[in-house]
């Protein structure tokens, strides 16, 4: 073994052993300083890789989000077209009304609006919003009216599942329920529920909500279908009253 | 000189992946077998130091084990007839002893997956290194 090699070996051995005799604090400081100096290129490379990995993940998430938004946008466009053709028909006109109050004992159950019989509002006229179904006029005064919303306990409206064509009833119990769906009916979470038109009050095709949960009930024939209302009743500031064109025509 | 630079660059590049495949130790072994003894010692020390700094447990322990093992291998190298079988056998012993010593001194966990991957990656890495180091562009 050459002398140079022995000297180098002993030197490196000493350098390797010395840190073991240092106190923990000194060892930490030395480690940090040497690490900053020696690992500078490694840290740059690692950070770059981490950045690229995180970027790739974020891009993937954003792509999914964009696709979802595009899909949602297309659905909303369809719904908007559908609403326009259904509501702006020859039979109906819309009267915009501002929400001016709420029942303090049933904050989402009843809305007070600034339109009344003087504007052609009568009891049982349907109320909608840009999001979907709201309810119906319960009482019409000369200058203001009270709208009973879909979130009022016991409110009922005939409805249809758009995807499957299953007819039933929307009723507010503890939750908003789509009733009379048989146990063997193939209904899915995410299905849109609309008014079926089998009513003297509500026209067909107004979005009531979407199915958010399905559970097997104790009932032998039907299952529990839970619906999320399309219209955010607690955030509504205005609503549209659907009026029959014949009833508001001048001279009638 | 260019070769030595290559080894150091390769060490820096491979150290972040050493927790899954210990390529740094394969390169260190290659350097011991192929290069000058003094450089091999210095390189083993550097590899140990960088490992200690990148996966900090106790500063100096990896470099200490590395230089002791490297010195032992440099001594043993004279008595070894290097063919593929003895090379891989020597590497396996070298790597197992290093892992065992780390486990004894700093309770570093023994990962069989890492050991298997490192042994599997041994010949391909050696082949690539030989192709690079013994390539005509390196002899200029």
Provide an overview of this structure:
- The complex is a heterodimer of chains A (252) and B (140).
- With 252 residues, chain A is of the alpha+beta class.
- Chain A has 4 helices and 12 strands.
- Chain A has helices at residues 3-21, 24-38, 40-87, 245-248, and strands at 92-102, 110-113, 126-128, 133-140, 145-149, 156-161, 167-172, 176-182, 192-195, 207-215, 222-229, 238-244.
- Chain A is elongated, with a radius of gyration of 33 Å.
- The mean pLDDT of chain A is 85.
- Chain B is mainly α and 140 residues long.
- Helix content of chain B is 78%, strand content 0%.
- Chain B has helices at residues 2-14, 23-34, 37-54, 61-77, 84-106, 112-133, 136-139.
- The longest helix of chain B has 23 residues, at 84-106.
- Classes of the chains: A alpha+beta (252), B mainly alpha (140).
- Chain A binds chain B through residues 1-2, 4-5, 8-9, 12-13, 15-20, 27, 30-31, 34-35, 38-39, 41-42, 45-46, 49, and chain B through 12-13, 15-16, 37-38, 41-42, 45, 48-50, 52-54, 56, 58-61, 63-64, 67-68, 71, 74-75.
Give the overall shape of chain B, derived from the CA principal axes: globular
* Subunit arrangement of the protein: heterodimer
Query: Kindly, what is the distance between the CA atoms of the first and last residues of chain B, rounded to a whole number of angstroms?
Result: 11 Å
Which residues of chain B sit in consecutive blocks of at least 5 with pLDDT less than 50? none
Biggest interface: A-B, 26 and 27 residues
Mean of the pLDDT scores of chain B? 87
Mean pLDDT of chain A: 85
Secondary structure category of chain B: mainly alpha
Unreliable parts of chain A:
none
Characterize the largest beta sheet of chain A: strand count, sense, and whether it forms a barrel: 6 strands, antiparallel, barrel
């Amino acid at each position: 073994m050459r002398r140079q090699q022995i000297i180098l070996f002993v030197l490196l051995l000493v350098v390797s052993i010395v840190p073991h005799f240092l106190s923990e604090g000194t060892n930490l400081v030395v480690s940090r300083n040497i690490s900053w100096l020696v690992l500078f290129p490694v840290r740059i490379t690692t950070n770059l890789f981490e950045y690229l990995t995180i970027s790739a993940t974020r891009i993937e998430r954003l792509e999914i989000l964009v696709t979802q938004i595009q899909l949602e946008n297309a659905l909303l466009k369809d719904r908007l077209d559908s609403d326009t053709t259904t509501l702006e028909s020859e039979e109906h006109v819309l009267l915009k009304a501002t929400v001016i109050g709420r029942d303090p004992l049933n904050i989402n159950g009843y809305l007070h609006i600034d339109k009344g019989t003087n504007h052609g509002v009568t009891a049982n006229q349907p109320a909608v919003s840009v999001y979907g179904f709201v309810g119906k006029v319960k009482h019409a005064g000369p200058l203001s009216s009270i709208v009973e919303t879909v979130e009022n306990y016991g409110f009922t409206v005939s409805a249809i599942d758009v995807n499957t064509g299953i007819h039933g009833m929307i009723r507010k119990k503890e939750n908003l329920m789509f009733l009379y769906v048989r146990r063997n009916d193939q209904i899915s979470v995410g299905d849109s529920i609309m008014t079926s038109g089998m009513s003297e009050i509500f026209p067909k095709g107004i979005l009531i909500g979407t199915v958010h949960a399905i559970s097997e009930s104790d009932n032998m024939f039907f299952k529990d279908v839970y619906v999320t209302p399309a219209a955010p009743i607690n955030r509504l500031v205005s609503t549209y009253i659907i009026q029959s064109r014949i009833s508001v025509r001048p001279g009638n | 000189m260019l070769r030595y630079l290559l080894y150091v660059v390769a060490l820096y590049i491979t150290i972040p992946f050493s927790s899954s495949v210990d390529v740094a130790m394969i390169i260190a072994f290659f350097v011991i077998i192929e290069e000058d003894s003094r450089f091999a010692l210095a390189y083993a020390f550097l590899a140990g130091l960088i490992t200690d700094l990148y996966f900090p447990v106790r500063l100096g322990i990896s470099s200490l084990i590395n230089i002791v093992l490297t010195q032992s291998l440099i001594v043993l190298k004279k008595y070894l007839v290097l063919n593929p079988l003895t090379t891989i056998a020597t590497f396996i012993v070298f790597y197992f002893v290093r892992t065992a010593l780390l486990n004894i001194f700093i309770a570093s966990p023994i990962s069989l997956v890492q050991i298997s991957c490192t042994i599997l990656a041994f010949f391909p890495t050696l082949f690539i290194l030989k192709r690079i180091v013994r390539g005509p562009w390196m002899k200029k």
